[in-house]
Specification:
The protein is α+β, with helices and mostly antiparallel strands. It has 13 helices and eight strands. The protein is globular, with a radius of gyration of 20 Å. The model is unreliable at 182-195 and 293-301 (pLDDT under 50).
Length: 301
Amino acid sequence: MTSRVHVHDGMVHYHQMRSACGLASALMIAQPRENAETLKLLELASVNILTSCRGMKILLGTETTRHQLGAAYILLKMAISDGIGSMLTKHNRQIYEDIQAVILHEMRARLCMKSKKDTSMASIMDDYVDNRNLPCKLIETYTTVMKSNVELKLLLAAFGFQSLPFPGSRDGTGSVVFGFIGRNSRARSVPAGDSTGKAVQADAWHFMTSNFDECGILAWQGSHWSVVKRMHESDGRVDAIFCLDPGSTSAREARLDSRDPSTCLYFFKKNPALLEQMRPLVEALLEIAENEKSEPGSSEV
């Protein structure tokens, strides 16, 4: 029997703000504390927030929350940028085409649901989409709502991580779905005599073991995001997966249940070409906000 342990050394834990598990998990992949350019984007975003939202100064004073607020701000800016949408579509149409339209639709639904007793959120969203305005209420509320895999796909693109879809994805999102790949899940998910199911299971194991070392991996567990830190393999099969949980106050690893059908893994691979194209566009978005170089809605960035 041959065995191997895959591990992302040096991954720094982020403790999430309320409902910001997706942002915190994405930051654990991007590792701004180890990447000066990524850190620069988050800090520039936090300066923009502080300039217009003095009431958020306390939140911005702590690095962990400052980075999560900065990530949400960057995501809000990217979701309405024509330049970002055009570049991503040209970079990879299959992965990124129409991603902004999907995000804005989901964002409006979730924000209005969260603020259903406050009818002003609908008009705030209209102003955001039509005039590119980012009021404090929108920034703070959006930071603390659950993020979808589509939003995190866009956010991680800002830091040069491209979504790497699993060709055998069973849910259409490009994810590897648990409850199907687990060694002990055969009775539940791969019926006896189902050679196709066994083949996809083998493909999933191969996809995970061959891409782990070069990818950041987000884990969706029904209603919570975490990030994969370590994976044990033996004879080409995945035996165990451990994650860092942003909901925890410590960096202690937690084991994922490979038989849980509600858990999905999303892979993101560092892409130098994507990073080279994204960096100046994201910096331009943030610098325009900081220096007030344009009127709301006038920029084509």
